[in-house]
Automatic annotation (TrEMBL):
It is found in: Cell membrane. Belongs to the LytR/CpsA/Psr (LCP) family. The chain crosses the membrane at residues 140-160. The gene is msrR. This is Regulatory protein MsrR. It comes from Streptococcus ferus. Keywords: Cell membrane, Membrane, Signal-anchor, Transcription, Transcription regulation, Transmembrane, Transmembrane helix. It comes from the Bacteria. Gene3D superfamilies: LCP protein. The lineage of its organism: Bacteria, Bacillati, Bacillota, Bacilli, Lactobacillales. The keyword Transmembrane applies. Involved in SarA attenuation. Affects resistance to oxacillin and teicoplanin, as well as the synthesis of virulence factors. One of its GO terms (cellular component) is plasma membrane. Its main location: membrane.
């Protein structure tokens, strides 16, 4: 019996010392257990040694130098166990003096978390959060999660609503575009998307469609950037099955037109041509016609897109405005002009399209390529406005239905918004070829074109991360 009592006392002593080391982080239940063990150990010391009970830095000062060490043990023990605060009916102790463990107690921290908290406390850097603050923080997190889910659900709903407005056939002004054959290939980092701007409405296809917008956009890369490369349409390339073997004798935009004449495979022949000449793999394509572009801009930005209009010299003379062709307002075969002034302004979809297509200044097609990139960057930047979340989703759905593309629903929903908002790292742009970095030449039909160094630009594409 004595041996059992010794083991019990040893276990109680070890438990007491453990609780003492973690005194600042005890739950209410553990605090009650600590108080019980402290009193029991003090009483046991009085019984065995008639010495002052064990004291810690955390005890009160009920014991001092005037303590009578010869006091009878029974009187000393009674003085501990008969205190009102110890045997109070509301203290929830058992008949044996142990604290009652209730289910409502909060969960204990993990051993690792308490150890880290104790270490931080000793260094003076830790400040334990109050219970109310923890509850308030958890509540805020919970409601933030609910709000995020509701917002996401709303965006998905608006996306499919916008798409259904077109694909349902109820809107007689529009027809859903066909998806072309496209044998896309994965790239090493992120996803490459071929973007083509067609001058005709893409519904059931058109063998006469042309493109002066040829871009490859990379999203989802490790740099967390949107990377954009524009290709000048007059660049001399070798088109598989069209060009003379071993010669660069066709303009790049010819690949789109020739492919469209072959069962509407313009995007696929453009993919093959870019792979053949620049060794770049492309997973998806999007063919956006000019009317769809203008309508999408007006849907996203009812008040217009803010942009700083810039033009090069015209015939060597600086200009403060230019006359640009207004193709969307063509009537009876006559294309009117629209005046666009230099400087910061708001443009609607039609004006923004005309600005991006203009090439009659001294920079020619290179200047047009720069303006196309400027327009894309402005749209990506300004669509970050939270008010565009739902109207933007509806516009995306509408564009998706009107656009010939092989981009899947899931990819667009998971990557489309991040692409439109420029990712976390912004937009990185490049033009091929760079300004003046070409030799004037002629294509196989005698038209003026640009001869470039393909090895050089393949290296640049690798450095940008698109190969």
């Amino acid at each position: 019996m004595t041996n059992d009592n010794g083991k019990t006392a040893r276990h109680e002593q070890l438990r007491y010392e453990y609780l003492l080391r973690n005194l600042a982080y005890l739950t209410a239940r553990e605090q009650a257990e600590f108080d019980y063990l402290r009193r029991k150990i003090e009483a046991r010391q009085v019984e065995n040694n008639y010495q002052a009970p064990y004291r810690s830095p955390y005890q009160d000062n009920r014991y001092d130098n005037s303590y009578d060490y010869q006091t009878d043990y029974d009187d000393a023990a009674d003085s501990y166990y008969q205190e009102e605060d110890y045997w109070d009916e509301d203290s929830q102790y058992t008949d044996q003096g142990l604290p009652v463990y209730v289910d409502q107690e909060p969960k204990r921290e993990s051993r690792k978390a308490r150890k880290a908290a104790l270490a931080a406390s000793s260094s003076g850097k830790f400040k334990a959060p109050k219970a109310k603050e923890r509850i308030r923080f958890k509540t805020i997190l919970k409601w933030a999660g609910v709000l995020l889910l509701l917002t996401l659900a709303g965006m998905i709903f608006m996306f499919f609503k916008g798409m259904n407005d077109i694909s349902s056939g109820n809107n007689k002004n529009y027809k859903a575009a066909m998806t072309e054959v496209f044998k896309g290939q994965d790239t090493k980092d992120g996803t490459n998307i071929l973007i083509l701007g067609s001058d005709q409405r893409i519904t059931q296809g058109s063998s006469e469609a042309r493109t002066d917008t040829i871009m490859v956009v990379n999203v989802g890369n490790k740099d967390k950037k949107v990377k954009m490369v524009s290709f000048m349409r007059d660049t001399l390339v070798n088109i598989p099955g069209v060009s003379t073997e071993g010669y660069y004798d066709s303009k790049l935009n010819s690949a789109f037109n020739i492919g469209e004449q072959n069962n509407n495979q313009g995007a696929e022949l453009m993919r093959q041509t870019l792979k053949n000449n620049f060794d770049i793999d492309i997973k998806y394509y999007m063919m956006v016609d000019f009317e769809t572009f203008a309508e999408a801009i007006d849907t996203l930005f009812p008040n217009g897109v803010t942009i700083n209009a810039k033009f090069s010299t015209v015939d060597g003379v600086a200009v403060d405005s230019v006359e640009v062709p207004d193709d969307l307002n063509m009537k009876d075969g006559v294309v009117p002009n629209q005046t666009i002034h230099v400087g910061k302004q708001k443009m609607d979809g039609r004006t923004l399209l005309n600005y991006a297509r203009f090439r009659k200044d001294d920079e020619g097609d290179y200047g047009r390529t720069k303006r196309q990139q400027q327009v894309m960057s402005a749209v990506m930047s300004q669509v970050k406005d939270p008010t565009k979340l739902f109207t933007g989703s509806a516009a995306l759905g509408k564009i998706y239905a009107l656009t010939s593309t092989n981009v899947s629903y899931s990819f667009l929903l998971t990557n489309g918004l991040s692409a439109l908002t420029s990712g976390k790292g912004g937009v990185e742009q490049m033009t091929i070829p760079e300004n003046g970095d070409w030799i004037d030449d002629y294509d196989m039909y005698g038209g003026q074109a640009l001869a470039i160094d393909f090895d050089k630009y393949q290296q640049k594409l690798s450095e940008l991360g698109l190969r």
